[in-house]
Amino acid sequence: MPPVKAYLQLFRPDAALIAFATYLVGAVLANGLDLMDVAAAFLITGFSTNFCYSFNSWADWETDAVNKPHRPIPSGKLTPRQALNYSMFLLAASLVYPFFLVRPGWILGAYLLLPLLGASYSGKPFSLKLRPPASVFAVSGGLVIPIIVGYYSNVQGAAPDLRAFFLALFVYCLAIIPLKDIEDERGDGDWNLYAKYGARLPYYALAGLLIDAALLLALPAPPLLKAGLLLLFLLTGLMIRWHLARPDQMGFLYRRNIHIVEAGGALFLGWQVLYNQGVISLSLMGGLP
To answer: Where are the transmembrane segments (predicted)?
Structure first.
């Protein structure tokens, strides 16, 4: 029997961290964050998001043998059948636990949408991965669902309207997700966006960031949240420009952008937790001083 570690390696650590942290960010923005929120973050990460990535690892194991031979299936740590069975267990759990966590309604639908996006992205023969830009929309949706359900599961009474904030996060994902194809070009097929657009792809990402910034400035959202997102856009844009001047480093661009996102999420989470605990007096949900 394969060790538990081999199954966990089907899931990417950065994806797990982002899903877990963004749910908690959503919760603290709604003045939440208790043990139930931590449990919910664990469930959405450990089952729903885990299914999306583990199922994709199974679906892509032949491609990974070229791009990433160290992954659990190409390296022989797991057989394809073992990875598929594990993914189906995660899918079943992902479709059951939300009914015990939230009441029927659109939040429940968002929980259920997450594994369905994962199945539609990787499931053959109609895999969305093979059909960009639908693939980019599916991945981006999966990335923003945790923070949205984290917020609306905790919000009470009259709360700030964060639809523009969530929309801006979604558009940010649309701009950045295609950059992952740079590191995956070898072994992918015609659906790889870097193979299709080449050196133009990072410029498309920069254009997406500019559009997103204009959208965020035009729509209502708490000023400090706006400022935080605009700083994220700026740092991401500078990272892209730095890599454009160093083509030999281009394969690391997406991963380094993920590190920027992780740092930004940690800052958002830490700031609002300190505010909720009364340590600081300025809330991300308030205005600029």
So the answer is: 15-33, 134-152, 164-182, 203-221, 227-245
**Taking the alpha carbons of 44, 50, 53, 55 in that order, is the dihedral positive or negative?**
negative
Measured CA distances, 136 to 65, 132, 133 (Å): 23, 6, 5
- Burial class from Cβ neighbours inside 10 Å (0-12, 13-18, 19+) for residue 162 reads buried
Which helix (H) or strand (E) segment holds residue 246: the answer is: none
CB 196 within 8 A of CB 131: no
Residue 32 has pLDDT above 70, yes or no: yes
CA angle 281, 153, 116 (to 5 degrees): 130
Which pTM was predicted? 0.93
Q: Which CATH class is domain 1-159?
A: mainly alpha
pLDDT digits (tens, 9 = 90+) for 156-170: 877 788 999 999 999
- Structure tokens of 3? 């060790």
CA-based end-to-end distance of the chain? 59
Going from N- to C-terminal start, the domains of the chain cover 1-159, 161-289
Q: What is the CA radius of gyration of the chain?
A: 19
